[in-house]
Structure formats: structure tokens, C-alpha cells
Design brief:
Blueprint: H1 2-14, E1 26-30, H2 32-40, E2 51-54, E3 59-63, H3 71-88, H4 100-115, H5 123-129
Amino acid sequence: MKEILIGLLLWIGSNSHYNTNIPAPTVIFMNEQEMNKVYYKGQEPVGELHGFYNLEQDVIILKDTWDRRNPWDLSILLHELVHYVQDMNDIQFQCNMEMEKMSWPLQQKYLIEVHNFKWDYDGLWHMMVSNCPDIYNGATD
């Protein structure tokens, strides 16, 4: 796993402005039920989790079905690794949702350039999940 992480960190470093000369993160594998429990903290799950970066523990959590031979699974790791890199670079965000602005496009670029795998995500959905709610933007009713 360490070789994969180093390779992905190098790719992120050459395709972004982030400093990736940082230690490789810890990666933990969990089944879907365990992931939901940690991520949703007892709330009802919304959608399927493929992985996430735990900001409090500085670890990446992936499904126990993750497969290093699967381009999509590798892109999930890359996506979460972008969040780790953002955190290690002390990038300040108004809310955690803003971390998605860079991770989705980098994941898409990685898939097409490295694996010739075309992933067209919904731009409107990306905008919704990568922008802070108005409460963070100082908007009032």
C-alpha cells in the first residue's frame, strides 16, 4: 500500500499546487456498516460511502472490498488522499464541503490520464456538495 500512496502523492503533487512532500497517511479498511457508523455518527446513512478522510484522526478509511487492481477504487483512494494533502498543507476552508472543489476534478483527471477511464460527474451536484451553505457565507434571510 505504501508504494501506491507514494505514487498517488507524486501524481497529486505534479497535478496541483499542493506540497506532497509529506508522510504517507494511515489507511484503514472497514466494512460498510462500520464505515457508516464512524462517518454518520449514529445518523441515518445518506448514500453509499466508498471511502472518507477522517480529519480528527488523520486517516483514510476505505471499504474492505477496495481492490488495488480496480481503477475506480484507486481513484477513490486518490480522492481521499487529496483531502489528506489539503489537511497536511493547512489549507483553510470555510466548511469541509469546500474540500471537494479540488478532489473531484483531480479524481476525474487521474482516471482519464492514468487509466483511460472516463468519469463524467454531474457538475450541478459537484457545485452543491463543494460549496458551503449560506450560513457560512454570511448570508441572511
